[in-house]
Amino acid sequence: MIDKDISKLTTEKYVYLTTSGRKTGKRHTVELWFAVAAGKVYLSHEGDFTDWMKNILKDDNVNFKIHDVSFKGKARIVKKGEIFEIGKHALYRKYYGEASKGVIDDWFSESNVIAISLSG
C-alpha cells in the first residue's frame, strides 16, 4: 500500500531514483518521470536497458526521492501483464492526459515499465 506521504507528492513532475551500480556498487541517481497507481510507483523507459535498469536487474533495492521526501522500495522491470498496463496508463494520463487504449499502447510499444513497491 502506498504510504500517505507519497499521495501528497503525486503531482510532482520528477522522481530521483537511486540504484546500486551492478559493477562498482556505487550509488547512481537519475531524474525520471513517474506516476503512482494501484499501490506502486511507476517509471518507464523506451528502448534498450539503461545502466539504472541493468542495476535493478542485479539489485532490486532502490531509494527514491520525490520533492524532499525519501523512500525505499523494490523495483522490477515489466514488459507485459496487468502491472505493465496499469503503469503505462498512469504514466500517460499524468503527463499527456486521457487517450484511447490504442494511442497508449502505441506510445508504449517499445517501452518497459518499472514498478516500485514501497518497503520499510
Number of helices: 4
Structural class designation: alpha+beta
Which stretches are low in confidence, meaning pLDDT under 50 for 5 or more residues running?
none
Strand order of the largest sheet: 2-1-5-6-7-4-3
Number of domains: 1
What's the number of extended β-strand segments?
7
**Main β-sheet description:** 7 strands, antiparallel
Q: What name does the CATH topology carry?
A: Pnp Oxidase, Chain A
The overall pLDDT average reads 93
The ordered H/E elements are HEEEEHEEHHE
CA radius of gyration is 14 Å
Q: What is the helix content?
A: 25-40%
How large a portion of the residues is in β-strands, by DSSP E?
A: 35-45%
Please write the CATH class name. Answer: Mainly Beta
| Shape, per Cα inertia axes | globular
At the fourth level of CATH, the homologous superfamily is Electron Transport, Fmn-binding Protein, Chain A
